[in-house]
Model the fold of this input.
Amino acid sequence: MERDASVFLLGEDIGTYGGAFKVTAGMWEKFGNDRVIDAPISESAIVGAAVGAALMGMRPVAEMQFMDFVSCGLDQIVNMAAKIHYRWGAAVPIVVRGPSGAGVHGGPFHSQSNEMWFVHTPGLKVVAPATAYDAKGLIKASIRDNNPVIFYEHKYLYRRIKDEVPDEDFIVPLGKAAVRREGNDIAVITYGAMVWVALEAAELLASDGISLEVVDLRTLLPYDEQCVLSSARKCSKVILLHEDTRVGGLAGELAAVIAEKAFADLDGPIVRVTAPDTPVPFSPPLEEYFLPNVQKIADAARQLAVY
Amino acid sequence: MAQARPTKSRKKTLSPDAKTLERMLYYLKLTREAETRIEQVLYRQGKIVGGVYVGRGQEAIGVGSAIQLLDGDVVLPSHRDFSSFLIRGFSLREIFCNWMARSNGPSRGRDNTLHIGDMGRNVIPIISHLGDTCPVACGVGMVLKWRQQGNVALVHFGEGTTSRGDVHEGMNMAAVMKLPVVFICNNNAYAYSTPTDKQYAVKDLAARGAAYGMPGVKVDGNDVLAVYSTVEKAIRRARSGGGPSFIECKTFRMTGHSAHDAAEYVPEKLFAQWKKKDPIARLEKIVLGNKILSRKQIDQLDEEVRKQVDDAVAYAEASPYPKSSDAREGVYCEDDCWWRSTPPVNE
Done:
């Protein structure tokens, strides 16, 4: 925002309050009413207004207080923002960002991973950082991108992940995955908070002599097909992991592309570890059952290692 | 962006001035002729691709509002505001190319009817999900307000659209943030086949303005001078920082919802009643009465308008369809974007 006067923030309780998760804390004090705007509870108007401002040359960043509520602004994203450039050639450089995901007992309306609504919408980009470094680099890249970007911040990571984030201006390019851990036996391809669960599983399995490679997609649309295929080919076995539910999850798409383009390199079935096809339940034992965890990944990896 | 200029004082006898009245008559006639050609000739000949939605009978709303916009103002027309596109500088040739799905229409064959936009001309088109442009107008209004150049955004929609949540969210946000947006409802009595008593329970939609904390005014939408002066007041208020207004233009859709719809659900007597209130005949009478144009000059104008439409139709018919494989292009806006790197065929 210091670098580019066209960047401004719009959302519910983001100004004086600093946002439900304090992501925008201190911004209102620094940039004032015109650039950190508290909006009414109107997700559709928030996204729609972001589109209008973007058409006028701005780079708005709209916050959904929880990404669950993006459903109320869905139409403006998938029908207005996503299609304008294709329809009449105007750039719509907006970012719609917010906290997603489960693990904090938020229940069915504060825990969803609904990224696939947008991955299935041509014209959008969908981003899901797993590290603090990436959160900074990817949000900057998203703001500077000329397309609508839907940016998923996993709420479980807000207070749990710590790493060195340089003060200087840098970006992490959209569309590029990162190999978080090199391995030889099984490629675990995942994103968001599940990257950390996969890394923990990799550590556990290393003592069993099973070597996991962990791929962090970082951008879900357009995803880094080259990186996905190269890890699949290298390990010959693949686990596709996500917190999102099973049917229609990104794992299905990745399984298809691996089967189409790297079939000959595979030594075993493509395995999915995902949440079941249910809403996200609230009570701890139910939510723990719902979420993929180290044990579920380890079980899947041990079965797959037999091939 | 042009700076808003203070409204010049006009002769008390004629408002707006003779020149503006003449231009309004021209745009009313051009709109009527073009839409009639599209709906009643080209569509029936199978030359129009896709649906046909026109604003016959309600042309005064687009004309009476867009005619007074300044360069830096932005308009978000509805699908029945053909005239707004013309007044903002879209040529008939461009528009007919779009209706006929040609590569050199503004959408290059990507989207039909009047779904054509261009920020160079400050026109943002609707999408079929009606009401979505109301929040978009708020974002436009925020930027106009920051620029402090006294510009405004006009957003048009029908009475059926007012039942959608986006209209509520947009009007509320505009009022809360005191944005320079004028919400213009063309209440044409039917939303597809649904009459107003199945759409809303207030007597006049204009009453809703008060509920949002903005002026709500109703006006005879078939009287271009009344539309002009009502919109003028709202624009003046918006330019001077007074915030948004809501205007309900009472009019009638002198056609079906679209060209395939014979509108048998509309009582014949309503068409007959509203035919007497035709906005073009009414302005013609004023123009003749004030001796701005003679009967002969009006006949010449009619002839001129017909020729312009003939030219646009011929041009569009001679224009190529898009190349099939271009369907894949321009999904994303990148530095070497197809929209900028590849000029449309025939341009």
The mean pLDDT of chain A is 97. Chain A is about 35% helix and 20% strand. Chain A has two domains: 7-154, 178-305.
